[in-house]
Amino acid sequence: MKLITRATLTAALGLAACGADANSFEVEVRDPGATGAVLKVCRSAELTLRRDGDRFVAAHGAGCEGSGEILVSFADRPPVSCPVGYVTPGLRLEWRFIVENGHCRALIDQEPAGE
Fold first, then answer.
1. What are all long-range contacts of 9-15, with beta carbons under 8 Å and residues at least 24 apart?
2. Which listed residue, of 62, 63, 65, 102, carries a Cα 20 to 30 Å from 12's Cα?
3. What pLDDT does 115 receive?
4. What is the mean pLDDT of the chain?
């Protein structure tokens, strides 16, 4: 019988979070000086979004029901918060935001992904 190690289990859970039930998050930053962005939902650990030009992107499976935020950090001023509404396991949503003039605006076309 194979023994499942903690590392194997952690890797499997990480891959599952990027699977079919993953929400997608995208923040287009039109303000200069953005240094990074992190996602925090349901009081879980922060997830660093990947930079792609003027955007920060991530895919993350909801392991909880709740809400949170994406904090976009800047070199020369306080971070800008983009509120993430309700997430729940099994429901995939595409969360899209624009940060401009020091404010975050949600793009309102929230449809379950894949429908």
1. none
2. 65
3. 53
4. 81
